Amino acid sequence: MQEQGGNGAAHWASAACRDFDAQLSDYLEGGDRPGVVSHAAECAFCGAVLSDMLMVRSASAELADDEPSPRVWANVRAALVAEGLIRPPRERRRWTEWLLRPVPAAALTALILLSAFAIRPVLRRHHRTAVDFAELVVGHDVIQNVSQMETAFREQSADLNPTIKRAYEEDLASLNGEIKECNDTLARQPDDSLSREYLVSAYTEKARVLESALELGDGDGR
Amino acid sequence: MALSQSRASKAASDAELIARAQRGDEEAFAALFEVHKRRVYSLCLRMTGDTAEAEDLAQEAFLQLFRKIATFRGESAFSTWLHRLVVNVVLMHLRKKGLQQVSLDEPDASQDEPVKREYGDDDKRLLHSIDRITLSRAIEGLPPGYRAVLVLHDVEGYEHNEIAQILSCSVGNSKSQLHKARLKLRELLRSQRLPASIRGT
Hints:
The complex is a heterodimer of chains A (222) and B (201).
Chain A: E1 2-4, E2 10-12, H1 15-28, H2 34-42, H3 44-61, H4 70-82, H5 97-100, H6 105-119, H7 130-138, H8 140-156, H9 162-188, H10 193-218
Chain B: H1 2-22, H2 26-48, H3 51-68, H4 78-96, H5 132-140, H6 144-155, H7 160-167, H8 171-192, H9 196-199
Helix pairs in contact in B: 1-2, 2-3, 2-4, 2-6, 3-4, 5-8, 6-8, 7-8
């Protein structure tokens, strides 16, 4: 049996090579297959295969873990709160009460979506600042409320557990980046519907993340 | 000894956190998430090969975990329980997508293509080490059925009898798929060695 190499060189698979192929899997699974090692020592081709397979196996076992984005915890936490699985002690509820009561985040989310729907036809092709576009798309009141929530979060975040605080800050930084990107795009292309949708989505997510952070500040997140 | 002490310490730590989470303690939920998030997310990422899907699945897995945490009685290690739950969440998702992990006893014909055993130009072997990104990318490039078995066995350390149970296939099939997966991975790694732009990213 002939096998063609990548450099055009032919490799003749001997009977020993075929035995090697047949036993390689068992050997890699820990089976006693002395013929595999001895043949690999004699045959450069099969020696390369065995060496590579051993390296692939060990490298896979040592593969380091990856880090999920902070949004995963923010979403999990929000769901746990919504389902009542997290029970923050009532007595700790204080500093965000004034902010969350008048405009609960769920209502804020609905307001953002409603504003986006209602204001969409108003967009016209003329020069506006980035803030103007955000106001046109999501509404002035919404932006102010989100901004107030963010200010409250910044003021109180020092009390949070450092790991959780960092997670929220990274999430907010990412969302602020998205908002800026959408604003920049809308400044160039005011009718870009995708940017408008992303802008609404980013503000909605930001309101949700801030709600989560503020409620955590109420609870035991330190 | 040090390892077993470390495991015992971790188990004790998990047990305390679980007890607190069962009482609705938010800090305990956050700490459990913090301790296990990387392993859960990485498993989802390697099984799906897609970061957005992996985040959704990690989120779903943690939610299922926390919803069921009141029922955890400590008969098995918490990490084992969690791990099995994550695998189930991922497999359920893949089945919904109609991918080929459903049964390895009915392999996709496209996965049975002969594995090439080619020489490189001047180097018959792979480099003496594989960087993490290149390996991760090559694993992502495996056909889904191969990827599932390889991730479960070589990355996560499952035994073939466990994989057979999880993937509803025979032990022999699990072994056979693993071997083909490793050969395919080798082939992918050899092809990825060529462009520096890929290896360097």
